[in-house]
Predict the 3D structure of the following.
Amino acid sequence: MPAQPPSAEDRRGPPGSVKSETTKRDSHLSRVLAYRRFWLMAGVLLGLDQWTKHAINARLALGSYGPGANIPVFPGFFNLVHVGNTGAAWSMFTGASTLLALLAAGTLLAVFLWRRPLGLAQPVAQVAFGLLCGGIVGNLTDRLLHGHVIDFIDLHFGSYIYPTFNVADSGIFLGVVTYLLWSLRQPQPAASNK
């Protein structure tokens, strides 16, 4: 009599067996690896953000802004400064650091819960949300550690001074723009005929 192929239970083993536990670990690992571009972008951005903020914190006192207090990189255009922002972009909601920290945590949770409808299985969406979430975690880390976000990039365009920002802010901006451009290029679902 020819040998029967092993059943699914034979391959997995009974529940609680070593084979079953190995299969569960492999399944969890494959799900994490399916989002590897997301994790890579988020990790790189978060690491770069925290490293630059640590370097600024070590070299410039908080409130170092203006001539003589900053570090000119390209004089008249780009300076390194050290300011604390308790608000959001462009210092909106100044003093609402706790509320903004809760909003950041809620946003991270929403991305996790709606990862499928957002298309996070797609490589471009993973890169976009990796930048976005890495930036959110970077600024959230600042709020938890310092009570404010460390901003240090100071740009001047003639008499116009752009609001001071950081690497996390850049990642959030690039992530949102990348996702919007990508989603606009996706085919629209066919309208149902009624």
